[in-house]
Amino acid sequence: MKQNLIYILLILTMNSFCQTGTIRGIVRNGVDNIPSQFISIGLYQNDKFIIGTNSDSTGHFEFENISTGEYELEFSFVGYQSYTIPGIQIFNDSSIYLETNYPCPNGNKKSKKICPYGHKNNIVPIVYGLPTIKIQKRANKGKIELSGCIITDCDPKWYCKEHKIRF
Asked: According to the model, what pLDDT value does residue 11 have?
Protein backbone atom coordinates (compact mmCIF):
# COMPACT_ATOMS: atom_id res chain seq x y z
CA MET A 1 0.00 0.00 0.00
CA LYS A 2 2.82 2.40 0.87
CA GLN A 3 4.46 1.59 -2.44
CA ASN A 4 1.32 2.51 -4.40
CA LEU A 5 1.02 5.79 -2.49
CA ILE A 6 4.66 6.64 -3.28
CA TYR A 7 4.10 5.94 -7.00
CA ILE A 8 0.95 8.09 -7.09
CA LEU A 9 2.72 10.99 -5.36
CA LEU A 10 5.70 10.64 -7.70
CA ILE A 11 3.46 10.75 -10.79
CA LEU A 12 1.53 13.77 -9.50
CA THR A 13 4.77 15.59 -8.72
CA MET A 14 6.21 14.86 -12.17
CA ASN A 15 2.98 15.98 -13.84
CA SER A 16 3.03 19.32 -12.01
CA PHE A 17 6.48 20.13 -13.46
CA CYS A 18 5.14 19.78 -17.04
CA GLN A 19 2.62 22.62 -16.66
CA THR A 20 4.71 25.09 -18.66
CA GLY A 21 5.18 26.13 -22.25
CA THR A 22 7.53 28.07 -24.52
CA ILE A 23 7.10 31.15 -26.70
CA ARG A 24 9.61 31.59 -29.52
CA GLY A 25 9.62 33.87 -32.49
CA ILE A 26 11.25 36.35 -34.80
CA VAL A 27 10.71 40.11 -35.11
CA ARG A 28 11.07 41.70 -38.53
CA ASN A 29 11.24 45.34 -39.63
CA GLY A 30 7.84 46.56 -40.83
CA VAL A 31 9.38 48.44 -43.77
CA ASP A 32 11.70 45.99 -45.50
CA ASN A 33 10.89 42.73 -43.64
CA ILE A 34 14.46 42.10 -42.42
CA PRO A 35 15.08 40.74 -38.89
CA SER A 36 15.09 43.44 -36.18
CA GLN A 37 17.71 43.14 -33.48
CA PHE A 38 17.56 44.41 -29.90
CA ILE A 39 13.78 44.91 -29.79
CA SER A 40 12.60 44.80 -26.15
CA ILE A 41 9.90 42.20 -25.58
CA GLY A 42 7.85 42.02 -22.40
CA LEU A 43 5.59 39.16 -21.35
CA TYR A 44 2.48 40.27 -19.42
CA GLN A 45 -0.37 38.45 -17.72
CA ASN A 46 -3.40 40.43 -16.52
CA ASP A 47 -1.48 43.70 -17.06
CA LYS A 48 1.30 42.44 -14.78
CA PHE A 49 4.87 42.25 -16.12
CA ILE A 50 6.17 38.67 -15.89
CA ILE A 51 9.53 38.62 -17.69
CA GLY A 52 11.35 40.40 -20.49
CA THR A 53 13.96 39.74 -23.15
CA ASN A 54 15.44 41.29 -26.31
CA SER A 55 15.55 39.99 -29.84
CA ASP A 56 19.03 38.79 -30.76
CA SER A 57 21.16 39.82 -33.75
CA THR A 58 19.01 37.63 -36.02
CA GLY A 59 15.68 38.98 -34.68
CA HIS A 60 14.87 35.84 -32.65
CA PHE A 61 13.54 35.75 -29.09
CA GLU A 62 12.47 33.08 -26.62
CA PHE A 63 10.59 32.69 -23.32
CA GLU A 64 10.88 29.27 -21.65
CA ASN A 65 9.07 27.65 -18.72
CA ILE A 66 6.02 29.91 -18.97
CA SER A 67 3.15 28.76 -16.74
CA THR A 68 -0.13 27.88 -18.40
CA GLY A 69 -2.53 30.77 -18.97
CA GLU A 70 -3.26 33.71 -21.25
CA TYR A 71 -0.52 36.28 -21.96
CA GLU A 72 0.29 39.24 -24.13
CA LEU A 73 3.61 40.27 -25.65
CA GLU A 74 4.66 43.92 -25.86
CA PHE A 75 7.35 44.88 -28.38
CA SER A 76 9.14 48.21 -27.92
CA PHE A 77 12.19 50.11 -29.10
CA VAL A 78 13.49 53.50 -27.98
CA GLY A 79 11.90 56.28 -30.04
CA TYR A 80 9.22 54.03 -31.56
CA GLN A 81 5.64 53.29 -30.63
CA SER A 82 5.15 50.01 -28.73
CA TYR A 83 3.23 47.13 -30.30
CA THR A 84 1.21 44.47 -28.41
CA ILE A 85 0.00 40.98 -29.33
CA PRO A 86 -2.82 39.99 -26.92
CA GLY A 87 -4.47 36.62 -26.25
CA ILE A 88 -1.52 34.21 -26.42
CA GLN A 89 -2.60 30.94 -24.79
CA ILE A 90 -0.02 28.69 -23.13
CA PHE A 91 -1.06 25.09 -22.49
CA ASN A 92 0.77 22.20 -20.80
CA ASP A 93 4.01 21.44 -22.64
CA SER A 94 3.05 23.74 -25.55
CA SER A 95 5.45 25.59 -27.82
CA ILE A 96 4.33 28.67 -29.75
CA TYR A 97 6.29 30.20 -32.63
CA LEU A 98 5.43 33.79 -33.67
CA GLU A 99 6.61 35.76 -36.68
CA THR A 100 5.74 39.42 -36.41
CA ASN A 101 6.58 42.66 -38.17
CA TYR A 102 7.42 45.50 -35.82
CA PRO A 103 5.40 48.39 -37.22
CA CYS A 104 6.78 51.86 -37.78
CA PRO A 105 6.00 54.58 -35.28
CA ASN A 106 2.73 56.42 -35.64
CA GLY A 107 3.32 59.13 -38.23
CA ASN A 108 0.97 61.51 -36.41
CA LYS A 109 2.87 61.15 -33.15
CA LYS A 110 5.29 64.02 -32.69
CA SER A 111 8.73 62.86 -31.55
CA LYS A 112 10.18 64.42 -28.42
CA LYS A 113 13.58 66.07 -28.31
CA ILE A 114 14.66 64.09 -25.23
CA CYS A 115 17.58 61.64 -25.28
CA PRO A 116 16.72 58.07 -24.17
CA TYR A 117 19.19 58.72 -21.33
CA GLY A 118 16.94 61.56 -20.09
CA HIS A 119 18.64 64.84 -21.04
CA LYS A 120 17.64 67.58 -23.51
CA ASN A 121 21.00 69.22 -24.29
CA ASN A 122 23.38 68.27 -27.15
CA ILE A 123 20.49 67.05 -29.30
CA VAL A 124 20.22 68.06 -32.95
CA PRO A 125 17.72 67.19 -35.70
CA ILE A 126 18.58 64.57 -38.32
CA VAL A 127 18.33 65.72 -41.96
CA TYR A 128 17.75 63.17 -44.72
CA GLY A 129 18.36 63.46 -48.43
CA LEU A 130 21.06 65.10 -50.55
CA PRO A 131 22.39 68.10 -48.58
CA THR A 132 22.64 71.58 -50.06
CA ILE A 133 25.70 73.76 -49.38
CA LYS A 134 23.79 75.56 -46.60
CA ILE A 135 22.80 72.25 -44.97
CA GLN A 136 26.39 70.98 -45.26
CA LYS A 137 27.69 74.09 -43.47
CA ARG A 138 25.18 73.58 -40.63
CA ALA A 139 26.29 69.95 -40.35
CA ASN A 140 29.95 71.00 -40.19
CA LYS A 141 29.08 73.34 -37.29
CA GLY A 142 27.33 70.47 -35.47
CA LYS A 143 23.87 72.06 -35.64
CA ILE A 144 22.35 69.10 -37.54
CA GLU A 145 23.18 65.46 -38.22
CA LEU A 146 23.20 64.23 -41.83
CA SER A 147 21.77 60.85 -42.73
CA GLY A 148 21.05 58.80 -45.85
CA CYS A 149 19.03 59.54 -48.94
CA ILE A 150 16.45 56.78 -48.49
CA ILE A 151 13.58 58.19 -46.42
CA THR A 152 10.83 56.18 -44.70
CA ASP A 153 8.26 56.87 -41.98
CA CYS A 154 10.39 54.84 -39.53
CA ASP A 155 13.49 57.04 -39.57
CA PRO A 156 14.73 58.58 -36.30
CA LYS A 157 14.25 62.34 -35.98
CA TRP A 158 16.92 63.31 -33.42
CA TYR A 159 20.63 62.69 -32.76
CA CYS A 160 22.30 62.85 -29.34
CA LYS A 161 25.85 64.17 -29.76
CA GLU A 162 26.79 63.13 -26.23
CA HIS A 163 25.83 59.44 -26.59
CA LYS A 164 26.12 59.26 -30.40
CA ILE A 165 22.69 57.64 -30.82
CA ARG A 166 19.70 58.31 -33.07
CA PHE A 167 16.15 58.25 -31.77
From this structure: 52
CA 104 to chain centre: 12
The full set of domain ranges for the chain reads: 2-102, 123-166
Any residues with CB less than 8 A from the CB of 122 and at least 6 apart, and which?
Answer: 115, 160, 161, 162
d(CA 156, CA 99): 24
Amino acid in the structure at residue 59: G
CATH class assigned to 2-102: mainly beta
* DSSP collapsed to 3 states, the chain: CHHHHHHHHHHHHHHHHCCEEEEEEEEEECCCCCECCCCEEEEEECCEEEEEEECCCCCEEEEEEEECEEEEEEEECCCCCCEEEEEEEECCCCEEEEEEEECCCCCCCCCCCCCCCCCCCCEEEEECCCCCHHHHHHHHCCCCEECCCCCCCCCCCEEECCCCEEC
Q: Which residues contact 48 (CB under 8 A, 6 or more apart)?
A: none
What would the pLDDT profile of 26-83 be if each residue is shown by its tens digit? 998 876 778 888 899 999 999 899 999 999 989 999 999 999 999 999 998 876 778 8
pTM of the model: 0.55
Residue range 14-30, pLDDT digits in tens: 445 558 899 999 998 87
